[in-house]
Amino acid sequence: MARRVFKLASLTAATTSVYLYVNKFLDPSDFGIVRVSRAIATVHLRSAKRLRELCCANRGTFIKVGQHLGALDYLLPEEYTCTLKVLHSQAPQSTRQEIEQVIREDLGKEIKELFASFEDTPLGAASLAQVHKAVLQDGRTVAVKVQHPKVQAQSSKDILLMEVLLLVVKQIFPDFEFMWLVEEAKKNLPLELDFLNEGRNAEKVAHMLKDFDFLKVPRIYWELSTRRVLLMEFMEGGQVNDRAYMKRNGINVNEISRNLGKLYSEMIFVNGFVHCDPHPGNVLVKKCPASGKAHIILLDHGLYQVLSESFRMDYCRLWQALIKADMKRVQKYSQQLGAGDLYPLFACMLTARSWESINRGIDQSPVSASEDMEIRSNAAAYLPQITQLLNNIPRQMLLLLKTNDLLRGIESALHTRASASSFLNMSRCCIRAVSTYQRSKSHSLYRRTQISLTETLSLWQINLYELFLWLKGSHLGNWVIALLSRIHHSTY
Fold it and tell me: Dmax over Cα atoms in the chain, in whole Å?
């Protein structure tokens, strides 16, 4: 309730006080609702900081859940999401002694026996582990991921504690429905705590996307890997949201955004095997000195979502409908994915666009600041409906929503959000995925041939439209358009 009041107060204050200030009627600080909204914002910020401190103190599972909450831009006030996002890059670290203990217990040797050098300061610390740079005795430079020593033992107790806390909060605030967070933690944590599973995921996605020469996935050194220690090829680069790094190194921001979209469209729509933690610390970029090509380096393969065929097909068709602004099909496939009568809200959550923009076509215009504010305001106003949706939709959708939010955050940082190329790549993958599915279900050679021809024609239409957009934005295209315009005017 406080969240709803805060958002309404903020919006009213923003419009009213600006008008009064410009017209010099009075000081906005004298306006009651401004003072109230500031007070509520301060309460939110203080609560968010205390929650972050609790996550840092309890570590492990609490940080993992805090990171998940930090990605819920469509659900929580900005004070919470901005404060909790810090947990992605500033998680507590284990000491050198704790790291030595884990390596000794799992590999049976001391650090000095295994490595020629081992850097004490970690490259990064996350909720479950931290990564150190090291050099093996044979001279290979590696990244050593070591699990925090107490995470395994404490994870089940932490989940039980969070479950009890959420049940208590649910009794006080009936609209508060976050039990799905506990359910997801129960399912995913055992997988994330098994680094051998992470290694298998890394090899699987590297093979699955081997045709993308811009993608780099670190090689796994199995002979020195266990459930709590993972040795990988060392790779470095700038974070994917660092525009300054890309400018310094001559990396094309639009190309990186386009290729990242290709990766995730392929994972989601075509393969149904999705890396679900693409925060900037896990996605690096680097320009190859030899070829001059920019590479995307994908790290941390512990959290993947496997999509069932029926879910993947409904999701493909829903996105096709959203891109074409086909409202009947948006309703149909949203409802098939559990949205019920809340399908307009579901479409807004999925795209992070207003219902008006969805009706007009999400590829027709970029996201404006006013639309972003509208989405955040509505998120607070529709909290009960949003939590109802999160409880009704398939569990597979929850991690996809988180993944979508993280990818949108990267696009916003790169100023490439809602670009036409991202929708074109999604359309290609949806067409290929649906056509492959239809061929697999058809027993007629004629029907399979017909499906293939339709697929080829649809892909060519997208290619032609992409060529048109490229010409429209290039100097050559502008010259051709100007020439055709002169010819047209001289004819008449």
Answer: 87
Q: Please, which residues bridge with residue 220 across strands? A: 232
CA distances from 342 to 101, 132, 441 (A): 52, 46, 31
Residue 285 is encoded by which pair of tokens? 């970029």
Q: Name the token pair of 182.
A: 């506990």
Cα–Cα–Cα angle for 381, 176, 370, nearest 5°?
25
Cα separation, 85 vs 90, in Å, equals: 9
H/E stretch holding 23 reads: none
Among candidate residues 56, 10, 65, 4, the one with its CA nearest the CA of residue 33:
10
DSSP 8-state assignment for residue 372: H
Token pair belonging to 293: 């090509």
Report the distance separating Cα 240 and Cα 258, nearest Å. Answer: 12
Reduce the DSSP state of residue 212 to 3 states and report it. coil
pLDDT of 12: 37
Q: Which residues contact 174 (CB under 8 A, 6 or more apart)?
A: none
Kind of pairing between the strands at 294-298 and 283-287 = antiparallel
Q: What is the mean pLDDT of the chain?
A: 80
Type and span of the H or E element at 215 = strand 215-216
Q: Are strands 129-136 and 273-275 parallel, antiparallel or unpaired?
A: unpaired
Between CA 168 and CA 171 the distance in angstroms is 5
CB 334 within 8 A of CB 346: yes
Cβ-contact 429, 266 below 8 angstroms = yes
132 phi and psi, to 5 degrees?
A: -120, 145
Q: For 415-444, where are the alpha helices, taking DSSP H only?
A: 420-441
Give the C-alpha separation, 232 to 227, whole Å. Answer: 14
Name the 3-class secondary structure at 145. Answer: strand
Which amino acid does the sequence have at 291?
A: S
- Dump pLDDT digits (tens) for 222-276: 999 999 999 999 999 999 999 999 999 999 999 999 999 999 999 999 999 999 9
Q: How far apart are CA 363 and CA 383, in angstroms?
A: 27
Q: Which residues contact 122 (CB under 8 A, 6 or more apart)?
A: 93, 130, 131, 132
Catalytic residues: 277
Helices (H) and strands (E) counted in the chain, each on its own, are 21, 11
Dist. CA 346–CA 392, nearest whole Å: 11
For residue 418, what pLDDT is reported? 62
